[in-house]
Amino acid sequence: MMKTGNFGRSILLVSVGLLSWTGCGSDQPTYPVTGTVHYTDGKPLKAGTIEFESITTKPPVTARSPIGLDGSFTLRTFAKADGALPGRHRVAIIPSDGMNAIGSKEERPGIIQRPDLHPKYRRLTTSGLEEVVAETDNRFEFVVEYADR
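RE: above sequence
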């Protein structure tokens, strides 16, 4: 039978081990990345997520950010606003457009909208977007197309 004190130490050791294994931080350098996403007519993509996936690291490392109502974003990889690893990245943009809502737009008018953003931007493999993160402050502007109407 295990004593309570030993059980507590065992839990602590397992917790510390898991934190170090999962990497609550990293010694890999990151550089600030901010920017905007807007349509060809200048209107911002008002909400969603942008994701950068490193091409130059194995395995790939992902940085992501919510997109604000003004189309702005600030990437994070390991900690809030730390940016992204330097090097080439594929980019995907996923709008918050109700695509994950239950039902159809006919069943739930006003809740489920037809997506404004062209669906090619949702995947790293089809977006056609690539950027190079330099070892300095980085600012990117993405001009995206509307979905076919």
